[in-house]
Structures are given as C-alpha cells and as structure tokens.
UniProtKB/TrEMBL annotation:
<protein>
    <submittedName>
        <fullName>Phosphoribosyl transferase domain containing 1</fullName>
    </submittedName>
</protein>
<dbReference type="GO" id="GO:0004422">
    <property type="term" value="F:hypoxanthine phosphoribosyltransferase activity"/>
</dbReference>
<dbReference type="GO" id="GO:0032263">
    <property type="term" value="P:GMP salvage"/>
</dbReference>
<dbReference type="GO" id="GO:0046100">
    <property type="term" value="P:hypoxanthine metabolic process"/>
</dbReference>
<dbReference type="Pfam" id="PF00156">
    <property type="entry name" value="Pribosyltran"/>
</dbReference>
<dbReference type="GO" id="GO:0005829">
    <property type="term" value="C:cytosol"/>
</dbReference>
<dbReference type="GO" id="GO:0000287">
    <property type="term" value="F:magnesium ion binding"/>
</dbReference>
<feature type="domain" description="Phosphoribosyltransferase">
    <location>
        <begin position="50"/>
        <end position="196"/>
    </location>
</feature>
<dbReference type="InterPro" id="IPR029057">
    <property type="entry name" value="PRTase-like"/>
</dbReference>
<dbReference type="InterPro" id="IPR050408">
    <property type="entry name" value="HGPRT"/>
</dbReference>
<dbReference type="GO" id="GO:0032264">
    <property type="term" value="P:IMP salvage"/>
</dbReference>
<dbReference type="InterPro" id="IPR000836">
    <property type="entry name" value="PRTase_dom"/>
</dbReference>
<dbReference type="GO" id="GO:0006178">
    <property type="term" value="P:guanine salvage"/>
</dbReference>
Length: 226
C-alpha cells in the first residue's frame, strides 16, 4: 500500500504553509528578466527546498536503508526534485552504516491543460517498477492514485511515494504521500521544474504564477515569429 489518508500529524504533512502566506518579494532574489512580470512572489526559496529535501532523504534512509530499490522519477515536473533527492540519498550513503542501492527509472505523466488539472491522464514509459516514486506536486491526488494502480500491476514488494508539494484542494481525494516536503494552499506554482505550458521549468525557486495578459501576449509573439 502506498501513500496515506489525511489524518496524519503535522510532521507527516511536511512543512505546512498557511493560506495567508504572502511569499517573498521578487526583488529579494534573482530571476530571469523575461519572467519577472509574470510572477507574483517567491513562494519557497531554493535553499529551503534543498534543506527540506535533505531531511526527506534522511527519513527515506531510516525507513528503507539496506533495501535494493528502484527510484521512479515522474516526468516532467518531478525531475529536479527527484534528482536532488537521489543526490542527497547518495551523500547519506557515503556517511552511514546503512546502504541503499538504487536504480533510477522514468515515467511520464501528463494531466494538466494550462493551469488546470484534467481528468485525462497519459502514462508513458517504465515497465520495470518498484518501491520509491518521486513526484514534484500532488494536488487532487487523482493522478497519483492512477499511477499507483499502474505500478501495483507489476507486483513490487512495496511502494513509497515522495512528493515535494501537496496542495490543499477542495476536490482532493485525501491522498497523502509517504514523504511530504511542503503542504501548500491551492495556488498555481511554477519553477523547480514545474511549468506552465513548458515555461518556467528553468527557475530554481518555487514561485506563484500570475497567469497575466503579458505572458499570453509574449506566447502569441513567439508563435507568430515561426
């Protein structure tokens, strides 16, 4: 069984960011000039993400150390979180009595249209699956439950899910990953490999996307230039 229902302690939920959290002003950080007018604030700085990821890696080592696992990276939005999580686990392995041999595989999910989660889910790749899944964001939980059904068909010994962000959404299924970085309000975030129509993946920070007219105007100009 993978994941849990939402009756856990605050520690299990990860760092809970309240609904009224305003974020940090953009001018306190460095971001590409071409994105500045499309972003509202820095929601989670990169250093905080890395510190929390290191803590999750330590929890995973405590729970799964001395097992042989397959890390299933959920593309595209989960690639940065998964890569950093695996790096943290590797560092811990070099300084621990426990070992955690890892193979890394990849699977691609697509369930978003613009900034909305849809009912349609496309799964591509990964035929040999087991144990630890890394996903950047869990909102309604429907995508992850569909993925877990797919993975369980391969009869792994166990499945654990690590999610960097879990959204509080009214339409949620109550699903909660085994390892949670942050619980956040139902805001659309980009950066740290999370995107809006493939834009903003190159930002190291998690930021709030304004989805303003200027961004759509820029998209039209780029399309008309081809």
């Amino acid at each position: 069984m993978a994941g849990r229902e939402r009756n856990q302690t605050d520690m299990d939920k990860g760092i809970v960011i309240p609904d009224d959290w305003p974020g940090y002003p953009l001018d306190l950080f460095t971001s590409p000039e071409h994105y500045c007018e499309d972003l509202e604030c820095v929601y989670i700085p990169h250093g905080v993400i890395m510190d929390r990821t290191e803590r999750l890696a330590r929890n995973i080592m405590d729970d799964l150390g001395d097992h042989d696992i397959v890390v299933l990276c959920v593309l595209k939005g989960g690639y940065q979180f998964c890569a950093d999580l695996v790096d943290c686990i590797k560092v811990l392995c070099r300084h621990s009595n426990k070992t955690l041999p890892m193979r890394v595989d990849f699977i691609r999910l697509k369930s978003y249209l613009n900034d909305q989660s849809t009912e349609d889910l496309h799964i591509e790749g990964a035929e040999n699956l087991s144990v630890l899944s890394g996903k950047a964001i869990v909102d309604t939980g429907k995508t992850m439950k569909t993925l877990l059904d797919h993975v369980e068909a391969f009869s792994p010994k166990m499945i654990k899910v690590a999610g960097l962000l879990v959204k509080r959404v009214p339409s949620g299924t109550g699903y909660l990953p085994d390892y949670v970085g942050f619980e956040i309000p139902n805001r659309f975030v980009v950066g740290y490999a999370l995107d809006y129509n493939e834009y903003f993946r190159d930002l190291n920070l998690c930021l709030i996307f304004l989805c303003g007219k200027q961004f759509f105007d820029k998209q039209k100009v780029q399309k008309n230039s081809f």
